[in-house]
Amino acid sequence: MSAPLPVTAVAFLARASQLGLFSAETLILLDRGVAKSAIGLVMAAAAAGGALAQLAAGRWGHRRRTTRMTLLGTVVQSAGCLAFATLTPWWSLAAADFLLMAGAALTATGLRATLAAHAPGGRGPGPDQLERAYGRLTAAQMLGALVGPLGAGAVLLHGGTTGAAWAATAVALTAAAVAGTADRRERATASDSGARLSAREKLPAPALPEPAAGPPSALLGTLWPPLVLLFGITALYGGYSVVWAVYLRDLGARNALIAWSAACLALPALVLSPRAGAVLPRVSRHARIRCAALLLGCCACLYPLVGSVAAAVAVSLAEGVLLAVALPLVSAQVARDAGPGRTARAFGFLGTADALGSGLGTALGGALLAQGGAADAFRFSGVLCLLCAAASLIPVPASSTRPPAAPPSAPSSLSSSETGRSPHVSRSSPRIRPVRR
Questions:
Q1: What is the pLDDT of residue 218?
Q2: Which residues contact 196 (CB under 8 A, 6 or more apart)?
Q3: Handedness of CA 107, 111, 112, 116 (dihedral sign)
Q4: pTM over 0.70
């Protein structure tokens, strides 16, 4: 099982656009006269957009084709990038950030659900196949996270902060074009498959809307450990998104280096993500993800003690290695725990945890930056990540649900004389035995 080419292409382009703009966002806001106290509000609007989009995907995602969800996400993300490039007031930039993150969240959920729906032959993937497939998806995203900040840094040297926003818009529009082509191809494939249906054989359509299965509370109880762990990790990096540029600027880094430093997280993940399942294979996935979250929290607490740009970049590289192990395992674990028919809803919940964690980290990171500086924001993010790793050990029972009704069985080809039943008695009725006197 491998990630299809359109999935990896859209993942690369969408993430390059998103991270390219995010790496220069703080600099753009500062150049447009936005106060430091308002930077956290602008980025919190982005987190709110991502959370609402993921809630919508978790509620209605199973009724739509996953390729259609991806297309919608890339279009909304393009609109957000365009608004960010053309608008100036801080409240309009907050609205643009809302659209940008909502589109990015829908795109990520659609890509994960599309990949889960492409199991070979309609069967469940074998051992480590999901880890390998989601590792390639993560590698494509991290390649975009590497190229996006590098391109943004190059544009900042020649075209300024506004040029970086326009470059992100162009890349997002390219991702929308690729997603539209994939959606048309998927729709044509589904139509051809439907035309060739026979009475006894039905060809599977990999990206058709998924049937709803069970209440959301049961699924949330099943997915509690990976959800709370991802919440802690994204809360950590939500705080980073606010304070990182200010922190490096205080250490004496230039604008281009600040933009390029975002690639430190992407470079290790680009190389290691496809092999995340091979790291400590005898240890459970939950334990590996939990250990990575613990180490990430400890790294966050180290930044206030670092006094040079080189040391800060070295710690960031170590965090990139931990992310390369954790993120593919989280996606693979959610896909396995959700089961068939619930992947779109499960990844909607996963994206909601991602957006809520990012929003909380962004809002509190901005508040702490305004009050006590970057050091307090780093400490808070690290402690929150450690607490989430501990909370993942708390068992959350899933609500009891009635099993879904079994599909109607096909009529048997055996005659009534062969089965010993009368044709006028239903199969669910007990057999009546004669009584001997």
A1: 66
A2: 203
A3: positive
A4: no
